Amino acid sequence: MAFSKTLAEMEQNIPDSDARKRLTALFDEDSFRELDKFMSADGEVSSVVIGYGTVMGASAYAFAQDVSVKGGAVNKSAALKIKKVYELAAKNGVPVVGFFDSKGGDINEGMAVQAAYGDIIKASAAISGVVPQIAVVCGVCAGAAAMVASMADITIMTEKAELFMTAPFNTPDGKLEGAGTAANAAKAGVCDILAKDDADAVAKAKKLIAVMPANNISLAGNDDFAANDDVISASMKGEALAAAIADKNSVVELGAEFGTAAYSAIASINWATVAIVATDKAAKLTAQDCAKIARFVQLADVFSIPVITIIDTEGFEPSSAAELAGSTRDCAKLAQVYATATTVKVNLIKGKAYGASYTAFDSADISYAWENAAIAPMSPEAAKVFMGDEIETTPFAAAALGMIDGVIAADDTRDAVASAVEMCSGKRVLAPSRKHANFVF
Predict the structure, then answer these.
(1) Which terminus of the chain, N or C, has less C-beta within 10 A?
(2) pLDDT at 250 over 80
């Protein structure tokens, strides 16, 4: 490449690709500023575009793999650019968004490709829990790239995107139905949000940036949402209740296709960001539900986002098959994450809270229960078998023992929850000196 060319001549070599269109769509109008535009590999245009700008007024960095350049092949040049984005995002305390669309590594670089992927992985891991990382998979995302995308705090995939470690058509057991697809990634809990197309994926990424904190020491909130005047009734299920508690149109559900007995969403209450968990989409919680909730609460905790847990469950799945598969591990993971989380935790028991399922969530700063809630060491049916008698399940009995902080009417829920979150906003916890808890996996 001749370096005596003018700026206009140099820019003629830069393709108007999907990568740049995605970044332009992500950032506010005229706010995107590209970095390292002329960095090249072997005299060719780079296979990744990087830069910064504002997203709904919030600063952010981003990179986008350019499949129009050698199939988006990852090489040392691309790795240096992506690593730079991660490092700048951490230094400036703002989120980073990555658009993944590549057919793999540049085979012309041989073993250097593995080192390039290693640099990207280390850079992503280094800022995990420092600034939010959002991965948007718009095309093929394979092997090491799939690991990088899955390491993000939140992974979005378009319906036509593909994500896999080994190409499904090249596995020893042959291509199984759905392997490598976005739909399967969502069902397996690898993809947090399934988007219809690029435009939908970008819109969801923008909303997440608007509601997530900029970094791990900043307060999260957004005043673009409207106050909520929905009427809350005792018949509401968790998902509808979450929408009624939160500011209007602020809710972003995560993991809708995975662990379907549980509900999890980032939202805003009185313009302060919160994480909402609900356990009433089915009678029992499975291992997948426990893993989903634990991962979500851990995300909320690293960014000090208050966790509101809406409890209505009969307990954990009573299944020999589940036990053989190690479901106890995931139940323990859920309990451990809740117990070690130092962010604000508010519980609302709206229905049943029996036995170990009550205990697993029992680490809240403030706990409320609706008048018709049922709190007990076991279900009334089990009590008759083991104790031969009825047991007290009313929330007033639990309140008398100090197990909950108050009994409220359903229509007082929004005020009670918002007040609890605000009252605990100055929470400080002096943790013992250690690197981190030895989390159950």
Answers:
(1) C
(2) yes
Q: Please compute, for residue 340, the number of CA atoms within 13 A of its CA located in the half-sphere on the CB side.
A: 19
Q: Which residues, in sequence order, are bridge partners of residue 142?
A: 164
Cβ atoms 133, 167 nearer than 8 A: no
Residue 345, pLDDT > 70, answer: yes
Tell me: do 200 and 234 sit in the same domain. Answer: no
CA torsion sign for 125, 191, 137, 181 is positive
The length of the chain in residues reads 441
Pairing of strands 140-142, 162-164: parallel
- Shared domain for 201 and 227, answered yes or no, is no
Within 13 Å and on the Cβ side, how many CA atoms surround 3?
4
What are the phi and psi torsion angles at 422 (to 5°)? -65, -40
- Indicate if 242 and 119 belong to the same structural domain: no
Which pLDDT belongs to residue 109? 72
Full residue range of the structural domain in which residue 73 is found: 7-207
pLDDT tens, 169-197? 777 776 678 889 999 999 999 999 999 99
Confidence label for 405 from pLDDT (cuts 50, 70 and 90): very high
**Domains identified in the chain, total number:** 2
CA separation for the pair 301, 102 (Å, rounded): 32
Query: Average pLDDT, whole number, for the chain?
Result: 90
Q: Which of 207, 230, 255 is the last residue in one of the domains?
A: 207
> Which DSSP letter does residue 168 get?
G
Encoding tokens for residue 345?
Answer: 């935790």
Which residues make beta-bridge pairs with 374?
Answer: 352
